[in-house]
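Reopening: structure tokens for the guanine complex, inputs below.
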Amino acid sequence: MTILDGKALSEKIVDEISTQVKRLKAQGRRVPGLGVVLVGDDPASHTYVKMKEKTCQRVGFLSKVVRLQENTTQKELLNTVRAMNEDDTIDGILVQLPLPPHLDTTEILESINPSKDVDGFHPYNFGRLVQGLESFVPCTPLGVIELLKEYGIDPKGLDCCVVGASNIVGKPMAALLLNSFATVDVCHIYTKDLKRHTLCADMVIVGVGKKGLIKEDMVKEGAIVVDIGINKLSNGKIVGDVDFDNVSKKCSYITPVPGGVGPMTIAMLMKNTLKAYYNLTRSKDTV
Ligand code: GUN
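Re-run output (same inputs, fresh job):
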């Protein structure tokens, strides 16, 4: 059994991006900028945004975080996004989700300039992803693909079972696997018999936020298991959706939690921001 070490790979990627930013600085160029909008008091969201801010500092990006109160109006939030759309020092925009329930998430995500949509949540990018076209790809599923690539795992021809069908993880994950010529089975909360689906899969990718969901008897011998779940226990420990101790005995490859997909997500955010920067600066150069 091999551990898919997302921490090590993410550090390698972050180091590579730092080197590129140093080179830009040495050339007297502006550095890439990431704008983050955080609404409300959700503790997990605050933690994620702090991690994103810290990584921006580490790679040398400009980072602008706007923290808005829980009772922010739709109009105020739209204005915040518009200001970032128009800000030439910001290449990537991220609105941390979930938003408080009184806000219209779809309208907010659709207000982001698709060229700055480093989360890949705008329907323009999502549609292009599904069609197999060049686009911004959501960071978590993109991180999974990069991690698999690092270990020489090609999804082509594999039977893959994606557990969870969210717009952030499950759906783009399924699209990426399909684009890599895997056979994809997507399970969700209404799936009648989850085990029937996971047990026959060469690769199980799970991201639903339910600790211990995937047990030893649900995966076949030699399967590849990717755990995207993040669950905080009452003692503060973070665990995934997979019963790691028992499932890992049957796997060929498995991601740990923490240290698997999580750090890859932030590394991919940096990568997408650098890509947005190059796209935007290149298009300016040619005007
Ligand atoms: N909330 C949970 N994951 C994400 C993510 O990748 N991006 C944003 N914007 N919000 C999230």
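The CA atoms of residues 215 and 243 lie 5 Å apart. The two ends are 53 Å apart (CA to CA). Marking as resolved unless the reporter disagrees.
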